[in-house]
Amino acid sequence: MTTPIGRDLMAGPPPTHLPADPATDALAGGEAPTEVVRRSPASPVAWAALAQEAVAADADAVTVYAYARVGYHRSLDLLRRNGWKGHGPVPWEHEPNRGFLTCLALLAKAARAIGETDEWERCRDFLRDSSPTAYAELLGDA
Asked: What is the pLDDT of residues 57-69, one digit of tens each?
């Protein structure tokens, strides 16, 4: 078997680029995240918006954790359907990836807030490994 010339055998998996999330337009149009989630329960963007709304309303960290965890798990399903193999870059620069990355960051923060240190560290590291830009944007020096 021959290796294609120019292929980097040491490179990791290619970046995952999720498809556009139809919930984005509904949210941009001012629809309430709860209504968008009811209509699009598989949407990471909708769950991220619901978790962000809970944060803005100063909801209990357990509520934020629950919303972000659902969005995170729905994101994993979507990532796998789009070729992700459990690791590799999920760039923040690709707008449709932001729902997943936002859910992951919110899950990390909520886990830390409820004392779930192992999950805080795992999610923080997962975010940094998936997208250094998202890590800097969403967690910074957290």
From this structure: 999 999 999 999 9
- Going from the C-alpha of 47 to that of each of 7, 9, 74, the distances in angstroms are 38, 37, 9
Residue 81 per-residue DSSP state: H
Q: Check whether 1 has a pLDDT greater than 50.
A: no
Amino acid of residue 108: A
60 by DSSP, 3-state: which?
coil
Burial state string for 66-88 with b = 16 or more CB within 10 A and e = fewer than 16: bbbbbbbebbbebbeeeebeeee
The pTM is what? 0.91
Instruction: Round to whole Å and give the CA distance between 56 and 39.
Output: 22
Closest among 116, 118, 84, 114 to 100, alpha carbons compared: 84
